[in-house]
Amino acid sequence: MNEVVKTLRKIEEKYKLFQQQQFTFIRALERTREEAHDSIRPVSSIVQVQCYKDHHCYNSTDSRILSMFVSICNELRCLCQRMETVHAGDSVTKALLEKCKVLLNDSNDFSALRATYPHGVVNHLSLEEARHRYGGVVSVLPIVLDSMREWVTHSKRKLLYVVSPGCAMCKKETPTSQTAPAALASNSNENTVQLQEKDFKKFLAANQRPPKKKAPWRPPGKHPY
Fold first, then answer.
1. Where are the beta strands (DSSP E) in 61-210?
2. What is the pLDDT of residue 157?
């Protein structure tokens, strides 16, 4: 699990660099699409970007940024496979991984995909670009990364849930050698209190005197002879 988290953080750092160059990425797609005479249809798959780079890219800057996009997609695909081997997971984690695998499939059509808040990648496009051409290709990476982060969070919770019952059992199964002295001390204290109560009752019985009887009342002025 630690290796998965470490790899995911590295990919996130790489994506941050890529995201900062989104304008360069869009301009590279514009130029290669013009070279391919393919400016009408939207960019809808990873293999389409790969095709632009391999066959219609004549600029080193364009080639670098398009390669960066394809490379991040490949690294995320490999990470999906590693996640499956690290943790079998439940229905939630399996659904998240399946979603990532579908989105990262080379021929998957992500033209209708749109990353929403807090991601601002679509907002950085013009209205025409966002609606018809590049809204999907700039959205696929942040959505996949969000799903992978959610997978990590959910998997960690499941692992903690599995470990915690064992810890509880350890606490319950305390050795009798440790509990015996405490039990003896408790019994000893109870016996001491009981003896003190008995001695106190004896003391009261031995030292208490009956109350003095008062003389009967006589009217004033009359005295006995």
1. none
2. 80
